[in-house]
């Protein structure tokens, strides 16, 4: 998957907040969007990355370098 196909900065924000263990409603409040918007983004990201569950989404996102482990730095 090309970098340009990986979504926008808001998608990365959603991924990072989910990776921190937040639920959709909390992610929505943090980002100032609706709960349904977060659900739709998550579903679209899962489709784009070819995964069928949230656990797989986190694993794939980490594998692709879209999120970093809680103890890793972005450097």
From TrEMBL:
Q: Which UniProt keywords apply?
A: DNA-binding, Transcription, Transcription regulation
In terms of InterPro entries, this protein maps to: Sig_transdc_resp-reg_C-effctor, Tscrpt_reg_LuxR_C, WalR-like, WH-like_DNA-bd_sf
Q: Matching Gene3D superfamilies, A to Z?
A: Winged helix-like DNA-binding domain superfamily/Winged helix DNA-binding domain (1.10.10.10)
Keyword flag GTP-binding: no
In terms of Pfam families, this protein maps to: GerE
Which parts of the sequence belong to the HTH luxR-type domain?
1-65
* Cross-referenced PANTHER family: TRANSCRIPTIONAL REGULATORY PROTEIN NARL-RELATED, TWO-COMPONENT RESPONSE REGULATOR
- Report what the protein is called: HTH luxR-type domain-containing protein
- Source species, please? Streptomyces coeruleofuscus
Q: From which lineage does this chain's organism come?
A: Bacteria, Bacillati, Actinomycetota, Actinomycetes, Kitasatosporales
